[in-house]
Amino acid sequence: MQGKRNTRPRPGFRLVPLLKGAVLAAPLFFSGAASAMVPGQRIPDRFKAISFSSLPGWQNDDHAAALAGFLRLCRKPEILSQDTVFPSIATADLQKLCNDAEKAAKSGDEAPRDFFESRFTPHRIAQSGFVTGYFEPELAASRVRTDIFRYPLLKKPEGLEAITLENRPQDWPETLSHGRRVEGRVTEMPDRSAIMDGKLDPENLELVWLADPIDAYFVHVQGSARLRLADGSAMRVGYAGKTGHPYTGIARLLVTRGEGTPEDFTAAGLRSWLEAHPEERDQLFRQNRSFIFFREVDEIGVNDGPVGAAGLPLVAGRSLAVDPSFIPYGSLVFVASALKVHDSDDGPFRRLMVADDTGSAIKGPARGDIFVGSGQTAGAIAGEIRHKADFTILVPNIRLGPAGVAAD
């Protein structure tokens, strides 16, 4: 997910204001629907209850920003989704929690921190974690093909759908997450290699055209981009679907081939290699069978972040891409890492974040990708983030019964 640019930050640029001044995206892990879990089921073993006092840097975080994010959720109940990891919260209990949050926000001072500490219990993920960074590219583009703009981003084909227990055909490969319904039958989509060879060309799916195939590939990895169009207008594109084939990191393939070390192949290092080896570039792209489709995003403001997988605009320094099969969308996640906050005296990264996005490369219970922002400066910062981290989920106490058992 890390398509970073090798660009020096602008003079005076500070990441800390982005982090501390941002409003958290809405936590989605509260639901008024009936719980999908068996009453009395325990919190999964990978979560271990701890105290707030054992969270490094907790007391120095911006709790008011986190509380603002919680209230944003409370005002948009339509974005609530069913949580398959923790039991859901009844509508009346959620309303009480939101009312308490409103009071805390109006009280100010230490009230936001007190709200979290009195109504949530931290649960640390037992295994060691790892964070990277990602950003939203800003690129030149054209709505029509020209001699300069020759590399398309494609729209979602008709009939593309995610594979679920309800629509999964017999003998469908476990590694294939999406398929295409044709005449009532779900079939496998062509992979990246076949699409590069023109398999979908007759369908005229081209949404917009870019000038550089490497840029186009990195937009696939990032999942979104801001585009400056040739006619002077602007557009934003975002994720619309994928072929469903497994993601393969091409930087890792280069390391396996002995082309360099993991440290050599940050996003900037990978871009440099691709630019220096044009004759090998396309063949390397083909090794990643996963292929992403896009849509034009027009429902958010120009100053908002791109829309993440949870359906919310991402917030720089506060949005975290996760594997939603382990960390539900909208979970409040406290990330503690040796990562240094750029151009500040704040020391290591200690932030309460929201799990509101995902990515093909983000797999496992303790894997996260920090959204840094948009543009080249954000890309330069994101490219340096490859750090070990501890992940702690804040679970509302009304989800919990005695001894960490989920309430009925």
Automatic annotation (TrEMBL):
Designated name of the protein = peptidoglycan lytic exotransglycosylase
Q: Per its record, what are the GO molecular function terms?
A: hydrolase activity, hydrolyzing O-glycosyl compounds; peptidoglycan lytic transglycosylase activity
Task: Give an example GO biological process.
Answer: cell wall organization
Say which domain of life the source belongs to.
Bacteria
Record's InterPro entries? 3D_dom (IPR010611), MltA (IPR026044), MltA_B (IPR005300), RlpA-like_sf (IPR036908)
Instruction: Give a yes or no for keyword Signal in this entry.
Output: yes
State the reactions this protein catalyses: Exolytic cleavage of the (1->4)-beta-glycosidic linkage between N-acetylmuramic acid (MurNAc) and N-acetylglucosamine (GlcNAc) residues in peptidoglycan, from either the reducing or the non-reducing ends of the peptidoglycan chains, with concomitant formation of a 1,6-anhydrobond in the MurNAc residue
| Coiled-coil annotated spans | none
Q: Does the keyword Ribosomal protein apply?
A: no
One GO cellular component term noted in the UniProt record for this chain: outer membrane
| EC numbers on record | 4.2.2.n1
Please provide the record's keywords in A-Z order.
Cell wall biogenesis/degradation, Lyase, Signal
Signal peptide extent: 1-36
Q: What class of enzyme is it?
A: lyase
Specify the Lytic transglycosylase MltA domain's residue ranges. Answer: 138-295
Pfam families registered for this protein in UniProt: 3D, MltA
